[in-house]
User: What shape does this take?
Amino acid sequence: MFPLNQWYVAGFSWELQDKPIARTLLNQHVVMFRTGSGEIAALENRCCHKSLPLSCGTIEERGVRCGYHGLLFAPGGACLEVPGQARIPVKARVKAFTVVEKDQILWIWMPREEGGTPTCEAPDYQVHSDPRYRFRGDVFHYDAPYQLIHDNLLDLSHLGYVHLKTIGGNAAVHMNAELKVEAAGDQVRVLRYMPDSSPPPTYLGAWPFAGRIDRWQEVEFNVSHLNIWTGGADAGTADMRDPQRGGFHMRGFHAITPETETTAHYMWTMAANSHPDRPDMTDLVYEQTALTFQEDKEVIEAQWKNMQRHSGAPQVDIHVDVGPNRARRVIERLVKENTQAAPQPVAVP
Amino acid sequence: MFPLNQWYVAGFSWELQDKPIARTLLNQHVVMFRTGSGEIAALENRCCHKSLPLSCGTIEERGVRCGYHGLLFAPGGACLEVPGQARIPVKARVKAFTVVEKDQILWIWMPREEGGTPTCEAPDYQVHSDPRYRFRGDVFHYDAPYQLIHDNLLDLSHLGYVHLKTIGGNAAVHMNAELKVEAAGDQVRVLRYMPDSSPPPTYLGAWPFAGRIDRWQEVEFNVSHLNIWTGGADAGTADMRDPQRGGFHMRGFHAITPETETTAHYMWTMAANSHPDRPDMTDLVYEQTALTFQEDKEVIEAQWKNMQRHSGAPQVDIHVDVGPNRARRVIERLVKENTQAAPQPVAVP
Amino acid sequence: MFPLNQWYVAGFSWELQDKPIARTLLNQHVVMFRTGSGEIAALENRCCHKSLPLSCGTIEERGVRCGYHGLLFAPGGACLEVPGQARIPVKARVKAFTVVEKDQILWIWMPREEGGTPTCEAPDYQVHSDPRYRFRGDVFHYDAPYQLIHDNLLDLSHLGYVHLKTIGGNAAVHMNAELKVEAAGDQVRVLRYMPDSSPPPTYLGAWPFAGRIDRWQEVEFNVSHLNIWTGGADAGTADMRDPQRGGFHMRGFHAITPETETTAHYMWTMAANSHPDRPDMTDLVYEQTALTFQEDKEVIEAQWKNMQRHSGAPQVDIHVDVGPNRARRVIERLVKENTQAAPQPVAVP
Assistant: This one.
């Protein structure tokens, strides 16, 4: 089960090119496209005639045309044309999802009841248009349930074991870092500060540090995505807890959208600032990040496979699990709300 | 379920070479071979000793020899030899199927009750020996139930969307073609005529048309196979409904034999006539046809996968479904007959 | 079900290098490693924290360190370290198996009840240290239940059909060979002698025979492994039933350890003596043997696949099945013993 009546990330603007794309989101099989006239759409990925995925079809000015017998569907789901037949059957339509495009992110509303409409605005993510940063991103597929990815991102202590080659650095420093967990509403924040530590390889490649650095990791968990602000400044030169601090900044957007109960999409971007004396390092940062996330994927998929082998085996908690466990309680509470009855009108006698 | 007490196509003569071949037909695991002395055979593909597939064995003068301990089986299923043992156990035999070879087609009888014998002759297909035509064919495997292939072949309106590169042509012409559906007994015929239309790429490659053509598509559905007569003549030069019409002729033999409830064999040949002024175009026609059928396979397998994802979702019928739906009723009726009790002798008091 | 309270082969000494290895044995997911200090260990392959396989971790002086958050486990299963946390949780430990290393073979005790300790010594296999022989071996994985491999090894009559290219030779000779089956306790012995027969290709490659040979095959079945002594001497020069006979000797060690009910590990070595006039033939014998066992694997996996297709179909026994059937009765009896209640103290009134 997943929290519903929520915005989830369905993809990124740059994915909508000349072909429709198929993606399963929370067990819903969705086709997404941008019509010739520029409208974006998310429909159930099944022609109502012979069930061919509409993602096998072609995009036209007014919608998507099925690749089997040519039925044409509008972004709202209505069938606009049945070739060779004047009358369009009343039932000829496909389910449509509410989808909005903001900050190059495609947000889809996943209602509790079919046809339910959004009860709030889709989230903002201003980093994508902040001139101080440049970013690139990607979409990874996980053979693992979405909450294992939450766990991973809310507990960055694994960096010293999993990511030695990129953003890791010394394991002991990570494990002994000062850790603060805050929770409010549906958000959880995990803050870690590592003063006077060695800069890891990715940082050294991207920024001309003088020597040791003060390093920060600020993780903000939201139901649909995590924002992870990390970075470092020359040791002792700034207050690393100050949001206006200088130095090298990586701003990670990590949307985790369940595909099914046991698989997930990991849709991420990584933005970074450039040092004035250095050429643009966006590609380097992207490549190192992709490598890092590939390492996480291998670990998490191995973990999930093993959890299935040892189904029901108990797990022992340690100090790093505080943040992940908070987020699990948020998800648990929201999932419960899915099935709670809507408030009933009081019967007046 | 499949119609039983029927001949089905098991393969083609040219497939029986020096090795036995394994093929599952209507859930029966069959090994087929031609003995050294020329007899053809279809046996259950399992040695009665240790269950090795007999298709792992070798062909000899008198039958097939198991590749594990060398038991030899005759085309009728009897064990002829147990190496190292004089006495052949009474139970040492394998199930045999009735199989006949006609017109380079291998027909297998699929009885309602085990051991049931044919109640009619296997079908003829004289095109394979008609001197006006040359042909080639192939065996495709489908990850889709057999009736989805029937649907596809009985509704050639999809040509304008699926087969633009080969035999398609203008979508509107296909969708608006005059269509006639006839049914009689277990046969369904779908006739489509497209006067004064543009010749599609395959036709242009194979025949020197003067310009626009009168084009015909005559589909004859039988339980085990469809005959599809298509072709075209220079527009206005002949009555395209006349079986003796001139022009370019493609004669397709399309045997669809269920492998299981959800997979099928598509065993086809395509014959064509050659224009006296042109070199033999058999290979071109074969290659274009194979390409076309590959396109169908991709569409139908994508359709089936999606039907499974959306199990039970309703489909909306349109005008092109008349022929396919007729054929589905034939199959439905025949499947029902499988389970009807045989006529009972009347008890005389 | 498998016989329990038994030693099984878990692997070979040379497999324990710088990385831990994962292997499932009798449905137990095991990680094996040799610590930096030289101790060997077999643990449940799951970190008790977040369930990552310990085989994804790294070997240290004192044990294996998990590749996710760095927990360190000793060969006995105790957690020695939780990075960043002083106190080690009481439940932080993983299940350990009793494992011993003898003759370059890793033996694992599979107890009837969890935590049960060995009731006997692990078997010896002195061939591995006998100066007359040199050996090499390998570990094969089988998609087939372990008893099908027993059947195969206890009935060498299949050599004439399956292994013509290597150790086979004339099929009739194999099928008509004198055969003796002996059983005692949990052992079964199958003895076959083929006087005055043609040496097969592998023999000819490894030994300078004068012409025809007296050939022996002595198979000894044990629950965890089979010893197969085969070889040949120039015809008429020695008593081939005498253990002190001369000629060419192949000593096969064939450990078959169930992985699951339907898959198995086949861990084998092949030792042979060298003729004084010839260079060392160990590599040739190894390669020919590996080729032979690959042929067996293909046959047995095809057999198993077909047994599943024809689930429940009866099999007809022939003369060669006496040895295999004896061994099946041993297994059956031992499996029954697994579930027999331990002797109950008599209630004194």
About this structure: The longest strand of chain B covers residues 248-260. Chain B has a mean pLDDT of 93. Chain B touches chain C at residues 29, 44-46, 48-53, 56, 65-71, 82-85, 89, 91-92 (CB under 8 Å). The domain at 126-335 of chain B is CATH 3.90.380.10 (Naphthalene 1,2-dioxygenase Alpha Subunit; Chain A, domain 1).
